[in-house]
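notes to self, project folder thing:

trying the whole complex as one job this time. last attempt i did each chain seperately and stitching them together was a nightmare. two parts in total, labels are on each line so i dont mix them up again. if this works i'll redo the older ones the same way
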Amino acid sequence: MSTVLEILHIARFGLAGVFLLGGGFFVLAGAIGVLRLPDFYTRLHAAGVTDTMGSTLILLGLMLIAGFTLLSVKLALVGLFLFLTSPTATHAVANAAHKAKLKPLLGTYRQTRKGDNEGGSQ
Amino acid sequence: MGAAKIAIAVSLLITMGVLWLALSGHFHDPLLLGFGLFSAAFCVFLAWRLHILDAETSPYHHIISLLVYLPWLMGEIIKTNIIVVRTVLSPDMILTPRLVRVKHLPRTDLARTIFANSITLTPGTVSIDMDADEIIVHALLKEMVNPADFANMAARSARAAGENPITTDEGKAS
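result (full assembly):
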């Protein structure tokens, strides 16, 4: 019995590490997306990756490290508030751009590995 | 002040009290517990003074339907995240941005809020503007603006807000 608990105890930190690394990957991918995407509206989508998968995976990893403590409850609350506030903030920014009549890039847009851009109309 | 309003005030007081306990971690000191109770009660008083003590302040009667909706939404978020990350990290990045109008919204304010927030939460689609009968959505790829997907999400958010799915059709409802 105690060996099973010990294995779980060690596996918990391993799993937490996987979650934290995964969260870091999604945050990095979101940052790369914000830099690579062509216009304001498309960049919002990359920022959404950081807001959702990045933050969720990092919070899950931290909750695994904290275990069944009050700290995990607080981390879960952080996750809940992020899920309520981040779409509101994204919508506020997007709506401000729309109200200011910023035209989105539409059609088909290509960016090749050499760094050439083509396509997309305002 | 009717019985319904007192029930809302009590449920808000309990929520505030539990939140205070969770965030402070003081379970034994009577002085601090008293301060916590006072601040929770003061929040309820402020909500009453602001005239915002209504069903939206404590939407707890929807909690089971919301808990059913959340896992599905998480699944959608994971799926679209993978699509967006794959698009953004591919060496030859091909985007097909679209601006579409989504019609046939859920009826109640809560269901509409859940729907619009779900659109924004799934990466690749952002709700930009909303009026009485449509939401303007910006999407990163043309595969993401399938009307059937939006209809499915609208029906599910209507159910999450405790709305009868048949009454989403405005004509039949009235």
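what i see at first glance: The CA atoms of residues 110 and 161 of chain B lie 6 Å apart.
need to look closer tmrw
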